[in-house]
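Researcher: Go.
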Amino acid sequence: MSAPRTVVVADDLTGAVESAAALAGLSGPVPAAAEVVLDVAALREPDASGTGGSDVGRGPAGGRGGEHEEPPWQATIVSLDLDSRAVAPQVATVRLLSALEAARRCAGPGGRVIKKIDSLWRGNTAAEVRTLIGKGPAVIVPALPALGRTVRDGVLHGVADGAPDPAGRCDLVHLLEPHVRSVRCVDLRVVRSRRGECVRMLAGIVNAGGVALVDAETDDDLDLVAAALAGLPDELIISTGGLAAALGRRARRERPEQAASPMPSAAPGPAERDAAVPRRIAVLVGSTEPAARAQIGHLAEAGVPVIEVTGPDAGASSSLAPVVVLTTPAAGDRPCEDGSWARALVDCALARYGDADFVATGGATARALVDGLGLSRLQPLAEAYPGAVVSRTPSGRFIATRPGSFGGLDSLAVLVQRTSAIRLSMPPDRKADR
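Model: Structure:
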């Protein structure tokens, strides 16, 4: 029988990767084994052939045929991307319920299932959460203090983008109607109690079939919630990446006997640098957000070529530079809709830079990339900075992902540098190549 796993179900790829990295503690000294899977079927146990149900040699519909895939990693943390943020709510909830059943089987007795939600409640988040709490007990932890999203008395603060309240507040209890009778708030006084009150209250709510909505304003609060949840491993958790990071911190503290991490540093030594072979990096930016455009401008000022892809059938010039940016026109100038811009970006990148490592910003662009490569799995390697993760494909390609408009002016440049540094510092036995 397999050891218990933590299984995350996310609605987009950047969230799935970010959660896996946070739970595995890839920003800390003692990482656990983690993998990201791109189809519900991959949650099953590896089959006798050792392929783990991957799409060897064929890829998804419309893809280019898969990269060669090795047997799956033996991971204690598995994160699934449902790719459901932009689909109709009914489609999203059907996918979610099917995935939840598979996730529970994959987690096993004593394992944990986490539904990762968007901290701004974009896409189908509300519909998915309503569906889940209508099916049974759960613990909801919506805060993400690192990005200013806090919860007090069941009200989410810091949701200025799209919030129903002009002050950036969202009453989550009201949002979760018609299931409000089953929702009980666990306030900050209880969370911060040092007498086990939080553990008892959470257990009482879920044992009675209810839903606990937990307040948190700081990462310290989330650490207390993570400690309280240690006694409730079989209960469904609905949370942002903030709780995943707290659970990862707790897991690291409980593994002091393990050896120091073999994870690469940001600055490889001279010997490693001489022995390693750098690879071109193609940066794919599908977001039209002003922050993303400013980050592209920062790279351009440093001499990085920027290539604009204008549509699915449009050609684009190539560049021999070690780093190149491919992007789409501003929103008002786009000739294509319904996600075809992301596929156009990926088609162009793979046609011209098929041997490159990639940096992909935004869930839609990242998902189009892995689909175009015919992948079914990714292995997170290291967190470049919060929310930005460098992963490895089974064939040895490196792919960095992060939310579309995330980070400061130099964040894309930092992610490119970090991706290159990780490849250069990776031990030879972990640098398998095509």
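Model: The chain has two domains: 6-253, 270-430.
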